[in-house]
Amino acid sequence: MIAHGLKQTASLKICARPGCEASVKKTTAKYCSIHCCAIDPSRKERLRRQARRAPIIPLAHQLPLMFQVHRDIEASLDDRTFGREDIPAGLLRLRAV
Question: On the CB side of 27, how many CA atoms lie within 13 Å of its CA?
């Protein structure tokens, strides 16, 4: 790193996983590799605690999804669309039957 024309050397960080003495490659990194990050027991425990704190919604408080279906749905749709002109009157004879 160069600041005001003077060269400064950044101190090498050591991997955060217990038992690993490798140096970290980037200044913003915490672990020396993805493997060390994945097997770090303190990180795993922290993730477990976070997962336990996640809100759990009981089934009684979830929103019910109720669908009301008409017995003869096609007749119901025909009743609702009566008077609408989806197909112009002149083209009714061309409608597929």
Answer: 4
CA-based nearest residue to 19, from 1, 35, 2: 35
Structure tokens at 80: 């609702």
Within 13 Å, how many C-alpha atoms sit on residue 47's CB side? 8
Q: Which is it for the CA torsion 42, 44, 50, 56, positive or negative?
A: negative
**In degrees, to the nearest 5, what angle opens at C-alpha 45 toward C-alphas 43 and 51?**
105
pTM of the model: 0.43
pLDDT in tens, 62-75: 677 777 776 777 77
pLDDT digits (tens, 9 = 90+) for 41-54: 999 999 999 888 87
